[in-house]
Design a protein that fits this description.
The complex is a heterodimer. By secondary structure, chain A is of the alpha+beta class. Helix content of chain A is 52%, strand content 19%. Chain B contains 14 helices and 10 strands. Classes of the chains: A alpha+beta, B alpha+beta. At the A-B interface, α2, β12, α8 and α10 of A face α2, β2, α7, α10 and α12 of B.
Amino acid sequence: MLELRPILSALWRHKVSALLIALQLGLTLAVISNAAVIVQERIQQVTRPTGVAVADIVTAHIAPVAKDYDLLQAFRLDLAMIRALPEVVAATVSRAPLTGSGSSSGVQAEPNREVGATPAAIFMVDEHFIDALGMQLVAGRTFAAEEIGEASETTSWRSNTVIITQQLADKFFANTQALGKAIYFSGEDNPMEVVGIVARNLGPWPNSTRAGNAIFLPILMDTQKHDFIVRAAPGQRDGLVKLLEEKLAERDSERVITVKTLEEQKNRYYAGDNTLITMLSGVVGLLTFIVALGIIGLTVFWVAQRQKQIGVRRALGANRSTICRYFLLENLMIATTGISFGVAAAQIFNHFLVSAFNQPPLPPATVASCALALVLISLVAALIPSLRAANISPATVTRSL
Amino acid sequence: MFGYYIALALRSLRTTPILSALMVAAIAVGVGAAMTTLTLNYMMSRNALAHKDDVLYAMQLDNWAPDRGWQSPNEMPWEINYKDAISLLHSDIPTYQVAMHRWGGPLSREDSELRPYSAEARVTSRDFFALFDVPFIYGGSWSSDADSNPVYQIVLSQQTNEKLFNGENSVGRTVNFNGAPFTVVGVTEYWQPSPKVHDLNNGNFKKSAEVFLPFGLHRSFEIYSWGNTNGWKGEVIDSYETHLGSEYVWIQYWVQLDSAQQLEDYRDYLTGFIRQQKAQGRFPRPLKFGLSRPSQWLQLNEVVEDDDYMLNWLSLAFLLVCLVNAVALLLAKFLRKASEAGVRRALGANRRAIFTQHLVESGCIGLAGGLVGIFLTTATLALMRQLQMGALDSVAAMDWLMMSAAIGLAILSSLLAGLYPAWRISRTNPSIYLKTQ
């Protein structure tokens, strides 16, 4: 600790350079802690469970060329063909979740109410849907084959039974048994009895506030908006994409067939978040790298400037570790100054991001861990030139004195 | 003199290659990050209808629920319903007016090898091309009776015409769309506004329609919009007719009003229209409608999202750190060369000359940094296009303006960074260095 005074006086002579490094570390802390908290939030958002077997599901869409096409009949024949394939575990026809397009409506726990409806995604499905989506039934039963009604976009369809997500059941019937109770479309009096509850389904819009509210109705819908949702046996998914294209064209070639994996569609939905995650991680990495380079550059410069000093100190009995420690200590003092400034700057920057752009608040733990990481990195950066300083031979330097 | 300074700067940079490379890298990375987000924000903020910004208006009507407005900044739905669109089309006040929505379906040519493919369509009233200034290569729009009667006429985009007819004049030929034969009446020139200001609720940066169809076809095809359809109350839809007559909103509506008088007349007309509907028990909310110019429409629809602005600020903070870094490195470099400056001072160069010389050196570093920065920006934008899986293809690209902006930003940053170090070195006392020589 005897070294503090000489370090301080040496730093005073280089106050601008030292301040610049401190400033750099402080600003870096402000940027990377804020970037880190955003990245953390988005990763959590993107990786949370969807409730469906995303990795195994393939969707297939058929658009008939002919004007008057019996779509329901095609659905039935195609599904029978698809289900017979050995690569297929289960299949249904409905709208795929996680894609960013779907339909939703207000739902109520009481009839004839219009105010305060809970928005929920609506899926019209047949009896195979739980298996086809790889969902988990936590209570009650799935639909029976004879329960499935038929409807088109121009017929009024209403169902007497419904399956809902656990999240919706908790919302409507907290602490009580949801099975057997009825829910209603907003403002209507037609009761839909809850016959089953599935563990989870994020619905068509995972980033919206209504994500996780979903109801499933036993209706085979005559609409071009519906896709076949096919769950492949483990490891068979990619092969199934090609196979479905072929088989669907084989059964009826006069239609435009589009087969996609659900994973791709989910990635497309999350593309904005994934871009942000990659970009911000890049910012964090590059910034840290640049600051480290700056520290190395400046320490190299100082070591070069003080070659004679170091030589004299070595000749007067200072050993290598003392010299090394000197430079590390010097760096630590600069880093601490910069970081304390950075903690304040991070809070101010975060306040701005929260209020102006709706970003998450910055928890102290994140600032602390980022600060610690930066101090460590600055020490490592200073270590390289410090070791070189310690290797300066007293003989060569003092010769020219 | 300037040439001499540049020669000096280059020599000085060559003597400390690592330090120089570090500085160039710092500026390049900072400029690269800043320019990536600036380019995105600049491209996303473009207004393809800027030249008609004072005459075009996107129209909104507030037909929403009595107890709650629509969840948009001005609390009105983006789209209107079919029956209102049909009524409003009868007005003779606007110079042009367009009711439209997105649709699509299988497209093919009878006697062609080409397999049917799914084409993006826009179902629209005939003024679309005149209102949005879409030029034609061949033919033109359909006749005006096609807006209210089923007329099987179609306008192809240039790309579609290339695909189906190898770019020949296809006016009068027949294509098959959604299972019915359509006569080609026109082929539009390449027209891809980005952001897609005329259609901001189907992906802001996606491609525009491949075919255009008349507005009178709804009943014969039972067309449902390929865009958003929203309702606020329980309505029994048991036929296509009840769908068309419902309060569901799914139609985008634009008008062109060339004079202040027209604008005023149209406001009066809309007020009258809503009053009349209110008398029939519709439009339960306070009387309100929206007429937004293209520039206002882009803002209202938040085409540039919060995330984009946030990235912009973060990257500017990034540039700031890089600048501070460059200042520190420049200071170290200049101080190391202080003896040279001392000699030049002793030989008669004044402080101003020393200052300028070092500023020129910083500028050279900035120029190099800017060039590398452009490369980095291009690479980052390419990465972004890939990460966005096609959603940003039309905006994540640099134009000449942005490239020159990158160079400008780099030189400006490096000059700013060089100010203090150059000033500091110009204050050196020549005698100290002469003594030790």
